[in-house]
Design a protein that fits this description.
The protein has about 200 residues and is an alpha+beta fold. Helices cover about 35% and strands about 20% of the residues. The longest helix has 19 residues, at about 30-50.
C-alpha cells in the first residue's frame, strides 16, 4: 500500500531553513555581538567577585550541536566564546555569587531559560538558554569558566552561494536530492528566485 506524505518533505524543510537563516545576519556578523556578550558576562563576575585574570579565546565559528537537523545540511556555524580562569574552582559563596552574576548578565542578553547541569561539591554547572539554541554556560569543576555559544548562522560564502544558486552547494544538493527542481544543470546558472 503506498504511503501518503502528510507534511513537508525533507527538501522543503531544508529550503524553509535556508529562508529562515537568510533572514538573519551572517555568522561573521555575529562575532562582534558575541564578543560583547562575553565581555558583559565577565564584567558582571568581576564586579561581584573582584577582577579575575580571564583567559579568553577569540570568538570562533564552529559547527556543533546547534547546527544539527536541517541546519546540518547547510553546514551552518555558531559563534563560540570561551573564557576560563586559571586557578582552583569556585565553591560555596564564591560560586553562588559568580552564578548569580552570570545569570543577571545573561538575562540582559535574552538568555533566560535556566538549566542546572550539575551541583555537587567540586562540580558546578548551570546553563542559560536563549533563542535558536544559543546558551551561556557557567561552570566550576577543574577550573572556573564561561562558555557562550550562538544559534546557527550561515557564513558569508554560503549566503553568497545561496544568492547565486538558490542552495549553498549545488553538487552536494544534487547528491542529497537527485530529483530536486532546484538543482542547476549549469552550476553557474541561478535556479531559485530569492525573496
Amino acid at each position: 500500500m503506498p504511503t501518503t506524505q502528510t507534511g513537508p518533505s525533507d527538501e522543503e524543510e531544508v529550503l524553509a531553513t535556508i529562508d529562515d537563516l537568510m533572514s538573519l545576519p551572517s555568522a561573521e556578523d555575529m562575532l562582534s555581538p558575541y564578543r560583547e556578550i562575553g565581555a558583559d558576562v565577565r564584567g558582571a563576575v568581576d564586579d561581584d567577585l573582584g577582577a579575575f585574570q580571564w583567559e579568553t579565546e577569540e570568538p570562533v565559528l564552529r559547527t556543533g550541536p546547534v547546527c544539527n537537523g536541517p541546519y546540518e545540511q547547510l553546514e551552518g556555524r555558531s559563534v563560540a566564546v570561551r573564557s576560563t580562569v586559571d586557578g582552583p574552582p569556585l565553591e560555596g559563596e564564591s560560586w553562588d555569587r559568580a552564578e548569580d552574576a552570570v545569570r543577571r548578565a545573561a538575562k540582559t542578553h535574552g538568555f533566560t531559560v535556566e538549566t542546572l547541569v550539575i551541583d555537587e561539591e567540586g562540580a558546578h554547572e548551570v546553563e542559560f538558554a536563549g533563542d535558536r539554541g544559543a546558551f551561556v554556560r557557567v561552570y566550576s569543576h577543574s577550573s572556573f569558566g564561561v562558555t557562550i555559544q550562538s544559534g546557527c548562522y550561515l557564513t558569508n560564502s554560503d549566503r553568497d552561494a545561496i544568492e547565486l544558486h538558490g542552495v549553498p552547494d549545488p553538487e552536494r544538493w544534487s547528491r542529497k536530492y537527485p530529483n530536486s527542481s532546484l538543482v542547476p544543470s549549469d552550476p553557474g546558472r541561478p535556479t531559485r528566485a530569492n525573496g
